[in-house]
Amino acid sequence: MLCPNCGTDNIPGNDLCEVCGSDLAGLDLVESQVSFEGQLMSDRIGDLTMGPALVVDGETSVSQAVETMRRFRHGCALVEAGDQLVGVFTERDLLTRVIRRGLEPSEVKISEVMTSDPWVLSPGDPPAFAIHRMVEQGLRHLPVIDGGELEGFVSVRNILRYIHEDVLNSS
């Protein structure tokens, strides 16, 4: 075991360097630390705390969807037709596709202003995939689909909480 101060090769298990007396205690222990980047690639989306899906039908009016989003404190509603995810409606969609166009929210259906065919994640995807997709596409919410079944969604807030609690606090 090499002394970090003087470079002397000491016998494994020595607590002090034979030459300079530096503390070597614990330096011969194998540490299993995964790097920040490594953890982002080795962990799985399914292990993160996900938001429960707030699901609406495409025929729902924008005003009804917004009221439901407000009540449950969600920034998005996932839109299903039958059991299939067909779109995502977000606060940004409300601002850019409804309000800016001067449309009446009570008269517009979600299916007319939602983001169709959204990007999705699977529970087996690493968090790095979600971060990459969010940055590249300017997204704040990604639905999680497992075998065709909607599991929930991951938001920027979920990712930040995961990094704070599971990555930074585990090192």
Break the fold down into its secondary structure elements and pairings.
Layout: H1 36-42, E1 55-57, H2 62-72, E2 76-81, E3 84-90, H3 91-99, H4 110-113, E4 115-116, H5 127-137, E5 141-146, E6 149-155, H6 156-168
Parallel strand pairs: 1-2
Antiparallel strand pairs: 2-3, 3-4, 5-6
Structural account:
The structure is a single chain. By secondary structure, the protein is an alpha+beta fold. It contains six helices and six strands, in the order H-E-H-E-E-H-H-E-H-E-E-H. The chain has helices at residues 36-42, 62-72, 91-99, 110-113, 127-137, 156-168; strands at 55-57, 76-81, 84-90, 115-116, 141-146, 149-155. The strands form two sheets. It has a four-stranded mixed beta sheet. The two termini are 24 Å apart.
Predict the CATH topology of the largest domain.
Answer: CBS-domain
What is the helical fraction, as a range of percent?
A: 25-40%
Beta content: 15-25%
CATH architecture of the largest domain: Roll
Overall CATH class of the largest domain: Alpha Beta
Number of helices: 6
Q: Order of strands across the widest beta sheet? A: 1-2-3-4
The beta-strand count equals 6
| Computed CA radius of gyration, to the nearest angstrom | 25 Å
The average pLDDT score comes to: 90
How many domain modules? 2
Structural class: alpha+beta
Profile the largest sheet.
4 strands, mixed
What do we call the CATH homologous superfamily of the largest domain? CBS-domain
**Low-pLDDT residue intervals, each spanning 5 or more residues:** none
SSE topology string: HEHEEHHEHEEH
